[in-house]
Specification:
Chain B: GO terms for molecular function: transmembrane transporter activity. Chain B: It is a multi-pass membrane protein. The structure holds 2 protein chains of 2 kinds. By secondary structure, chain A is an alpha/beta fold. Chain A is built from 7 helices and 9 strands, in the order βββαβββαααβαβαβα. In chain A, β4 and β5 form a beta hairpin. In chain B, 30% of the residues are buried. Classes of the chains: A alpha/beta, B mainly alpha.
Chain lengths: 212, 213
Amino acid sequence: MLEIKKLTKTYNNNTIFRDLDLTVSDGEVLSIVGPSGIGKTTLIKILAGLETADAGKVTLNSEQLPVDGTRTDAKVGLIFQDFNLFPNYTVLDNIILAPINVNKIDKAAAKDQARSILDTLGMLNKAELYPFQLSGGQKQRAAIARALAMDPQILAYDEPTSGLDEASTKQVAEIVKTLKHRGVTQLIITHDQFFAEIVSDRVFDFSKEVAR
Amino acid sequence: MNYFLELLPSLLSGLKMTLGVFFFTIIGSIPLGIIVSLGMKSEYFTIRWLINGYIWIMRGTPLLLQLIFVYYGLGMMGISFPRFEAAIIAFIINYAAYLAEIFRGGLQSVPRGQYDAAKVLGFTKIQTFFKIVLPQVIKIVVPSFGNEVINLVKDTSLVYVIGLGDILRAGNIAASRDVTLIPYLLVGLIYLIMTAIVTVLLRRTEKRLNIWR
């Protein structure tokens, strides 16, 4: 379970959000909606350890995560809006790089695990391609596979449907559902209210529920 | 042809010197250039200031002058090196400055998102640099790096100024002794062969790196 308590973020004396409280249960799919520039992305960047918060507490499965930028773990998987795949590695190598180097998993085992994840996401036939050879939707699935390979306790998506056509958006929705069935806790940042309603168990309206 | 065979031993001994300066400079200046380029991004003002001063001096004065200074100048100040070592030191610190500028450009063109993605996956800063950033930098810098390597092939001829016998000097001696331009033609030909080899190797590297974009 992810628990956010009284989280506050200011930037150059502007309050992005204040005293934010939010809980995501295990296996839940929660969408955070609201217009762009409101601080949704900042929130998941804090959760992933890429941004610092000024005050507040983040607890993940009863372990408190520091919000001062000192995080080095991969407990929160993040799917970036522009995916940030490593262009110099194939899809398979993008996925196994962290398990091998960070978790010190044996290469053969990492490859097996990566192939099984790619299979789940319908990407097994793209394993040996480089990111530039993939479509936007395929890049996104590669990024999801890369995050899943580190076995994160929660998977966060930053605007997963931006720049995708209707068919690809449906595919993302399918992936979210598939992962939900596998018990993956998911947090989705989106300004697409319709998508949020389809895929999530609960929708959190950032603009209404967060003090600024 | 006979004349050519007559010249060959002295040219080959000069070539050995030229190649020695070339390879030691490559081996020394690449790592130093990478370290300097990382130092340029240092959060400490003093380090950045020192590095900028170093680069300014290295790029702002002729390599010929730097060779003279390292061998004769430092020698007068009591820090003396043998000729060959002095040449290698001068070449390495000079080329590292140029390479550092090239690497800096390469480092700047790796997007912020690559570092973010690596951090979220739990990579350490050192892993991020060697596994993710450096391979991308290498691909970006290969063409400009190649220019510097070809310059280096020709710049090695400057070592004559501190009395080292490179291939051009060997040609020079033969030309004045025999009053003919043929040794110079041969030397020119050998430089062309060396730069051709470097060019082919660089093209191959570029091609190999082009499997990803």
